[in-house]
Amino acid sequence: MTATHTPAAKPAAASDRKTTYREAMREALREALRADDRVFLMGEDVGRYGGCFGVSLGLLEEFGPDRIRDAPLSESAFVGAGIGAALAGLRPVVEIMTVNFSLLALDQILNNAATLLHMSGGQLPVPIVIRMTTGAGRQLAAQHSHSLEGWYAHIPGLRVLAPATLTDARHMLAPALADPDPVLIFEHGSLYNVSGDLPADAGPVDLDHAAVRRSGTDVSLITYGGSLPKALAAADDLANGSISAEVIDLRTLRPLDDATIGGSVARTHRAVVVDEGWRTGSLAAEISARLAEQHFYDLDAPVERVCSAEVPMPYARRLEEAALPQTDGIVAAARRTVGEPAPATGRPG
To answer: Mean pLDDT across the stretch 250-256?
Structure first.
């Protein structure tokens, strides 16, 4: 009698699961702390309070005060201490509450972290990750609504990241920690409560390449961070008017992925750059200049920029909304590139 072999049933594929941007960031930190004893988290209120935005909630209880370290109210001190720890062989993750407070540690970031590898002739790498919340839209007025990631993207020696999706929030930290150079991660405050399905097969994020979040043929919407949802909403709106918009998520602001940006514009021949920073000297200005330098003959219309108004961010909600890039402004800019007038809104222009 011949025995028959029945193949074993394949295990069911893991399913996507619901999570939030905040929880995805927390999972990334937990995974890093478990995987490598050299990793520790340091910053103001990251321990017993659970982080100013709740990202590190529960980590102190799991990993203890040696690895979840509440720091004194001095960004220059604890960022400097993080740089020293990185030089000594540890893998610090330093949290700065909001980007405006990072200015108090600018000397440490610019003159130490970004330059030591060069100034030591390659002997002193600084593998530090510095996380901070950026952006407006939460009525925090002029003190806590800055979008200064473009300033840091100006500095050689740094890698600058802007996770905009659940997958990037969950999986950007591991390659950032593996980078021998200092990495700055800008987390837009409006994204922490965003919820959705985290793909079960999501894995390490490629930090060297931008992502095409939506394919299109008529215009490229180029953006990052908290403006990505607005760009995607604008693409939906444009599609209703038979305009096909491609949406590019930069993800990494330094170094910029010229190939993906340029490849998109070579396909669509039009570009709208959406940047929550101020227009003057912005990332949008840099991207527009690169497109003019590298893809002038691919462009069928001038590059449009949608940026924040050049004012200190207002507190009043209506004024804040008016000062920030919004979906209707992105739609209007895209329509201009294809030669279509924006529909009348009944509001002053």
So the answer is: 98
